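Record type: monomer structure entry
Structure origin: computed from sequence
Chain ID: A
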Amino acid sequence: MPRLRLLLLLAALTAFGPMSLDLYLPAFPEIARTYGTDTGSVQLTMSACLLGLGAGQVLWGPISDRYGRRLPLAAGLAIFVIASLLITVAPTFQVLIVLRLVQALGGSAGIVIARACVRDLYSGVELARAMSAIVTVFALAPVVAPLIGSAILAVAPWQWTFVALAVFGVACLVGVALMPETLTAERRSDHGFTGAMRQYGTIIGSGQFRKTAAIAALGSTALFTYISASPAVLMDSYGLSEGGFALTFAGLSLCFALGAQINMRLLKTHRVVVLLRSSVAAQLAASIVVLVAALLTAGLAWLMIPLVIALMTVAGVNSNAMALSLDPFPRSAASAAALVGGLQMTMGALASAVFSAMTLRPAVEMGLGMTIAGAVSLSLIGAGLLRGRSHAVSLT
């Protein structure tokens, strides 16, 4: 399989997160009516999905390091497809939440193993550039997902959005069947469960990993806070239709993709650590403006402008922090990616659940969550935890 085609497949596999999270966003009001609940409560299905995406990566990572990339990928995708179809006949809201968790546990294999495949193929600055390329394609999923969901809702009930996810899973299964194995037998680990836990302990023991993984997770927390709150903000608070929401969400997702492209070009002339610092600072500044606009009940345009900047800079935070986290672990890339991804999704799930339980206006909750995430990241950097001297992906 040519490198470009393989990178596109890997990007599609990392898109299991946004596809699972974003395709059904326009259906929130319809799901709420089906189960006799409110739109805010439907956010719990997103929290379950984020939790599954996080926990699943921790399980799939060491499995992939031991048995290679293709077989675990196929197993995870099969679970995803079956759970997606079962969701269409979920009898209660509680069952829907559980099935979303199972669906995400399967789909998480695509996210963590795809990142590990990228590490199998690249290192150093090339790894950061490859991650930016993956993030660019990955970012297109939130563009098309709500549009597809909105189109489906125009002609069919919300259950068909999950049929579409099952079809996506089958298509990725076909791609995995055709892809080469990127982790050769001699590079695989031979440890069992206990060994996998020791490997996790070794990775967590790295100061570089702890610092950059925390920032990657905080960047994703800001992103997931926006995603989970967006249906209530745009449809309930600002009165957008399902189609209007899908178009607006798609436009904002394009800004995320644009941010990843800008970051990839800046990596040619700037240090990875420098770009990470700048991205975090810009994300925090934009998030503060989002919060202020929400507190002042400003018009939609005044909310959108800083949100555009925040999403563009989050792309840089995620790409650079992920590259810095994975680069030191060529022989345990999947385990390292699993820890980062698990932390990202778990923190996102907690943030989504906490803010959905608040009684603040949705826009205020969104701005507050994004601001807190950016402030904590900047405090880590301000404490002198990140120092870099060269173009290499390293912390010194």
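Annotation 1: The CA atoms of residues 216 and 322 lie 6 Å apart.
Annotation 2: The domain at 3-182+192-382 is CATH 1.20.1250.20 (Growth Hormone; Chain: A;).
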